[in-house]
Amino acid sequence: MPFIRLVVAGTGGLAKLAIPAILSSTQPKFEVTILTRKTSSTPPSFPGAKVVQVDYSDHAELVRLSAGADAIVSLVNGGISRIVDRQLLAAAQEAGVRRIFPSEYSLEILHPSAQSLLTLDKPWPDNLAVVPLAKEFVDLANKGGPTSFTTIVPSAFIDEWVKGSFALFEPKNNKVTVLDGGDHPFTGSSLPFIAGCLVAALKMDEEKTKNKRLHVSEVRTTVNEIIRLYEKITGRGFERVPITTQELTEQRNRYFVDGQSFPAILTTIQIAAFGGGGAGDLEDGLQFDGDGFLDVKRKSIEQLVRDGLEKIGVV
C-alpha cells in the first residue's frame, strides 16, 4: 500500500523545496497536511495542501492531526528538530501511522568515526544529541510497534557549503580552510536533489525502505577540487589556510567546555564531513535512484560550484 496521506512538519529550509516537490507528484497524488508552529507570524501558503498551526508540545493535538495519515515527514529546521521528532514519533505511534521520516538529513552519524566525535564525557544538550535520537529510530525495528522509520542520509549540503554558508569555504573572501591537506574524498547533495530523493523514497515499495537509513549522494569530490573550481570559474587565486583534524577537534572541545553548543556541533560536522573518517563519504549513495522514481538529475560538482557562486554574486 503506497503512502498517500502525509503529514509534513516544518516549512523552512529544505521544506521550501521538498513540499512543492511532494505536491507536484501526480503518480501518486499525495494528500498533504502541513504543520507549522503557532509561533510563526504568518502561516505559509502551499496551494494543494492544508496548513495547520500547531503546538508540538501538545501531544493530543499531534495525535489528532496524525490520525489517518500513512506517513509523517519531518522537515523541521535546526536543533529543535531533535525535540520535535520525538514528539512526532510519540504521536505517530499512538495514532497508528505506518512510517515516519525524521529530520536528520546529515552525515552518516552512526558511522563509528562520527559516533566517536559525537560522544563525549559530558552529554550534548537534548537539541543537539543526534546520535541517541538516531538510535531511537533504528530501535523501532526491534520494537514491533505500528510505526517504522526511513531516514534520508545525504551527507554534506554541498550547495550550501560551496556558497560559504557553514564556514571553512569563504568564496567571497577568496579563502578556504583546508583540513588535513584537502584530499579526503567526501560526498554531498544539493537541497533540490535531497528533495527529489525524499519524494522518490515516498513512492518506493515501502518494504524496501522500512526501517532503513537511505544513503543518497549527488557528487563525490574533495576540498582541493572545489578550490580548483573556484579558481577556474572566478579567474582568481584562493588562499589556502591549513588546519589539522587534531587542531579542529581541540577547537571543538573548547567550544563545548565554554558552553557554545552550536559552534561545537558545526565544528564536529566539519571534521566528520571533510576529515576522511568515512561518515561524510557515502559513495554507495551515488547509486541511489529510488527504484526509478528519482526524477531529479545529478549535477556535476563544477555545475554546483558555478551555481553557488552565481547565487552569492561572486560571478
UniProtKB/TrEMBL annotation:
Key words of the record: NADP, Oxidoreductase
Pfam families: NAD_binding_10
Top-level taxon of origin: Eukaryota
GO MF, any single term: oxidoreductase activity
UniProt keyword Aminoacyl-tRNA synthetase, yes or no: no
SUPFAM superfamilies given in the database record: NAD(P)-binding Rossmann-fold domains (SSF51735)
Listed name of the protein: NAD(P)-binding domain-containing protein
Taxonomic source organism: Clonostachys rhizophaga
Source species taxonomy: Eukaryota, Fungi, Dikarya, Ascomycota, Pezizomycotina
